Fold these 3 entries.
Entry 1:
Amino acid sequence: MLTVRSLKSYYESICALKAVSLHIEKGEIVTLIGANGSGKSTLLNSIIGLIPRITGTILFEGKEIQGLSSYTIVKLGIALAPEGRQLFSPMSVLDNLILGTYHYYSFKNRQKLNDKIEWIFELFPLLGKRKKQLAGTLSGGEQQMLSISRALMSEPRLLLLDEPSTGLAPKIIENIFRTLTELKEKTNLTIFLVEQNVNLALDICQRGYVIETGQIILSGEKEELMNNKEVLRAYLGKE
Ligand code: ATP
């Protein structure tokens, strides 16, 4: 579904990704593990078209998408729930959700929009209870649900999640990840998950990659990564 080949991403003259290659198959949950500053967000932002200076190839469902605008990439079927949630704080839950439909919204398909919103409220009932509340006044967990839901409103086939568990209580994290796993099972949604919570990431994924200073240093099936000495030592604190 997604193939990244020799991707280099730059901030001015700084090369933050140094020839990254990876692939994600339809219906998989693939995780990307790495320390602070290793290039995880840069990779997701490069895929969704937010990093202007990149070289290499990004193929989505066989089509080259590097260099396309984020608007076009979202329209093609990829969505990002970004690091730090990036909600429109002074706007309501409903308005944040509607903004996720930017590429297909029109008065003519109001019914489709309403159906989508109802679907989101079934996935995350708490958001339904808060629909008129301003996004900035929600709890951290509700904000994360809203960020993921806004991404889902764009009807992605590939969902990119950038550190969704940051700052949340274990119960809330469990709730969000259970919902995502159920969603994947029902709809065959493909998920690329960036997480610092390595236990959580390895628990939910089928495969994963480890990134260090802008390079993929390891990849494998969940069990391989869970038993890898370097992963155990550096990311799970086990000697
Ligand atoms: P974190 O877990 O802290 O979010 P990360 O793995 O997502 O880290 P990135 O944010 O992708 O890492 O950063 C990769 C490298 O690029 C780091 O060295 C970082 O300092 C640098 N970097 C990130 N954003 C910018 C920017 N806007 N301008 C210059 N350098 C940047």
Entry 2:
Amino acid sequence: MKNDNLDPLILVGFMGTGKTTLGEYLAKNNNLSYVDLDAYIVEQQQKTIPEIFEQDGESGFRKLEHHCLKECISRFDIISTGGGIIEGNDSFELLKYLKHVIWLDCDLEVIYDRIKNDSNRPNANNKSLFELKSLYSSRVSRYNEIAFIKLNSNKPLSELQHVIMEELMCE
Ligand code: S3P
């Protein structure tokens, strides 16, 4: 259930940066409601992400993602989003107006090792490090534009939580 006194915390960042791990950790430690947006989409559609990409294309996926993002913003305190959410203009515009968007980032080599050949990630599957780098570079300015803080996920979860709480208390 959503806590009405809180603006939702939205985790954004490239695939494989640990948005789900951090989101689950924050929710559990602070007794807040949590959703992974990809998991929500999969449950709503009763289809896997690759099936949605295959049947409706990436643009179809982005429409669903935007619809589900709007629902989740009103229902959950913490939301982990998919790495490409900023590719959808509607979602990007919506995220611009939210106060607590956190950009989670880490070294691309680490990301590559985590996600290469992941058949459940159509935008990573069969991509070389070079191709992934260029996708990453094309997204950076949008993450940067919407985020109120950027964190490096190679730090311990407890430290990331501490930084986030400090930032929220400074408001
Ligand atoms: C995507 C990232 C995925 C998922 C979909 C598309 C992307 O989420 O939304 O496969 O285009 O970067 P993760 O960031 O959780 O892998």
Entry 3:
Amino acid sequence: MANVIVVGAQFGDEGKAKVTDLLARNADVVVRYQGGANAGHTVVANGNTYKFHLIPSGILYSGKVCILGPGMVIDPKAFISEIDALMERGLDDALLRISASAHVTMPYHLILDAAEEESRGAQKIGTTKRGIGPTYADKCARSGIRMEDLLDRDVLKAKLDWMVPRKNVLLERLYNLPPLSAKEILDEYYELGQKVKKYVCDTSALIFQAVGERKNILFEGAQGTLLDLDHGSYPFVTSSSPSAGGACVGAGVGPTTIDRVIGVSKAYVTRVGEGPFPTELTDELGNKLRETGVEIGTTTGRPRRCGWFDAVLGRYSVRINGLDCLAVTKLDVLDAFEELKICTAYRDRETGETYTDLPSIGSKFQRMEPVYKTLKGWLKPTTECRSFKELPEMARQYLEFMQHELDVPVAIVSVGPKRDNTIVIEDPIHGPKRVLSKPTA
Ligand code: GDP
Ligand code: IMO
Ligand code: MG
């Protein structure tokens, strides 16, 4: 038995779904604990490509309980179209469950996400426009609508009768947009509630039972550490807690339940949306990474910004998540680069000070320029490699350098999108984990 969190160690899109899919084979329960339809998780399995937004990627295997946890925000329309499409492709929803406490993304959240972004002008966040920020804002303001509310027409009516006029003030007066009808939303969303009713339950109780039965539980993170509301590059973040701590709150389990935390990191860095990105390459090298890595957003189709691997961010991610080991993805994308760079420290453009740890992630982050170590490329294909020793010498050195810089073992290396394009160096669940250095006397 082992309960494992898979967490994005960068700005999202690290290849978490591929790693989750790999580990889900031995899991009994797969849980999404935060985020919503902003996620885009791609798994290439048996010649098919699946793109998940709300549904845990564990649904690809039959017989696994798949949970949308209480920390998620769920757009019921997006959920229904996603599960319908998956079922058309032959997948089964028998063990799919949604937490009654998860919050619902309502039509006004979607409209307000777009309107707020537009009004921010140059200060826009670059959200996915899936209503994430406004849904979590209402949750925190204790005005949100939860999945269980969709099932009770009277409760839903009372909430909407209070909420919709307030949202209409914003829509009409602040954004010059047409008002919404509480009655129309009530009819439509009660109906949607009836469609999803069969999935809704107390998922925390389900997980607690599975823990008691010594089942294997896999917590599938969405987004990434640097997009974390508390620990990311605020305000250019999402509105949930993707980092490992968020798994306990967002799934409704105690920290003592967790055995391992696996960080997923690309062999370089990408980011979609606005915000600081010290190692970003805006030149031909950046274009080459984007083209070779097919770095196009799964949810929004936006081109991803690309740059060199950043060990400062990596160390920060080890700290925030308590990573035990790392899964490094997309190593193959670097196959055709003569020279590779890894950022080992930041230099403050204004003061000249250098930092090997992220200083303060706020305004200073914007002033950081990378200090690089240059490594030789391997200029050989890696996609067919199936063991660490089959990798070209310089690729091994690259991974060893990453491991050394982050002080965390690299357990998995991904060398292509398919399931078998994978090198397992150490068992990520039972193998070596990060050891705390000895305290200095
Ligand atoms: P996630 O959001 O973290 O699950 O990542 P995404 O699915 O948004 O983006 C990762 C993309 O890279 C997907 O298209 C994957 O199929 C693909 N991918 C994952 N691992 C590898 C790899 O090792 N090599 C290559 N070339 N592609 C990969
Ligand atoms: P997965 O799970 C990459 C980014 C958006 C934007 C910021 C806030 O596929 O890794 P939001 O819509 O959440 O309010 O947008 O966060 N973002 C992601 N970037 N991968 C994701 O998910 C993301 N989800 C949100 O681009 O910068
Ligand atoms: Mg993604």
